[in-house]
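CHAIN AND CONFORMATION:
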Amino acid sequence: MSTHLTDPAELLDLVGENLGTGDWLQITQGQVNLFADATGDHQWIHTDPERAAAGPFGGTIAHGYLTLSLAPAAISEVLTIDNLTAALNYGLDKVRFPAPVPVGSKLRTTVTVRAARRKPAGLEAVFGLTFEVEGSERPACVADVVVLYR
């Protein structure tokens, strides 16, 4: 399921609506290592498969912020807006990481419109994202992501 809009203002009428669920994305050790290099977070639970095998998760896990960094791609996978000047990451209202993302697992994201309002700078939309790990009862991440459409 995906949502196609002509203009960002149409989000005002979609508050409370589910925009869709993206495709499954496999999380690889290579992605985790690149994220560790980019952020300087080389904690062994992310980057040392041998040590992590004996750790609390039975293997390496993705950084929570790696999962969260997939938010813009997750939104654009389920939402297309034709007449768009710019979509800016404006902030986060709430983020939680209820469950780990084991390396090798698959994630997908469901996106809903939590709020939308006109502002002097454009239209501000708050999207509720739920990152689901295949086979897990608990989500890996739930976040309210704020986007400003200019």
